[in-house]
Amino acid sequence: LALNPWDVVLCISGTIISCENAIVVVVIFYTPTFRAPMFLLIGSLATADLLAGLGLILHFAFVYFIPSEAVSLLTVGLLVTSFTASVSSLLTITIDRYLSLYNALTYYSERTVTRTYIMLILTWGASICYGLLPIMGWNCLKDPSACSIVKPLMKNHLIILSVSFFMVFAVMLQLYVQICKIVCRHAHQIAVQRHFLASSHYVTTRKGIATLAVILGTFASCWLPFAIYCLLGDYSYPALYTYVTLLPATYNSMINPVIYAFRNQEIQKVLWTVCCGCFSSTMPFRSRSPSDV
């Protein structure tokens, strides 16, 4: 089988994704103070992206070194599960950020922890179900005409995944609009109480909205091309179109650790202490709200 340069690029992307997210998973897992809902959700996102990176590596290895239809279904199932869990985890983080602002007084309670575990169970339960469909027989190995742009996934399967993505994106967009309104209102109230100048209030508000725009814009620019092509494309189209739209989608898993983990001050402190060789698992941290953007 001739080596496809696009598959090599995807494999390299998977390696980078795996390394980045493995760092986040290890830091959160081995730091006892990182058990707040915010860190659990970040850990879920990092785990999903880590599996996505490993899935890309395994897919490359099995296609070129151990070609097998059964193994192909397993790797595709892993990729569907991990990318679905990644997108769903982004939604849970958005919901958590919104609730931390909307219910600020009751956010730090047992109800929040319970709600977080419920969201995680639903996220991974739905993702695993989506990933099991190709393995359980919903594939096009015996009927090539039913294939989608991503073989061996069926066209109907990919349409369901695409529609689910657009629903998630619509909910995230609505939640971030509400978050922007709350941020603007809070910034205005603080400015009035502390007698800040109007220009100071404007700078604070603009910074918060710009951060939210970067988060949502990155997500949309990475995933929308592939989601749209999944609806419009056909198995007879050139594979080049699939690679061109799929590659940016994988970059989202590469960017997620930077946006959601490495920007977090507590995680930064742990990484710095690890690099300095003075890591202590009992190191005190000041818990920040997930709404800090």
Can you characterise this structure?
The chain has 293 residues and is mostly helical. It is 76% helix and 0% strand. It has 8 helices and no strands. It starts with a helix and ends in a 17-residue tail after the last helix. Mean pLDDT is 85; it is low at 279-287.
Radius of gyration: 21 Å
Biggest sheet statistics: none
Number of helices: 8
Overall, the morphology is globular
Overall number of strands: 0
Give me the secondary-structure category.
Answer: mainly alpha
Element-by-element helix/strand order: HHHHHHHH
N/C terminus separation = 48 Å
Quaternary structure type: single chain
Overall mean pLDDT score?
A: 85
The share of residues in helices is over 70%
Enumerate the spans where pLDDT stays under 50 for 5 or more consecutive residues: 279-287
| Proportion of residues in extended strands | under 5%
Short structural description:
The chain is mostly helical and 293 residues long. The protein is built from 8 helices and no strands.
SSE topology sketch:
Layout: H1 5-29, H2 37-64, H3 69-102, H4 110-135, H5 155-193, H6 198-232, H7 239-261, H8 265-276
Helix pairs in contact: 1-2, 1-7, 2-3, 2-4, 2-7, 3-4, 3-5, 5-6, 6-7
List keywords for this structure.
293 residues, mainly alpha, 8 helices, 76% helix
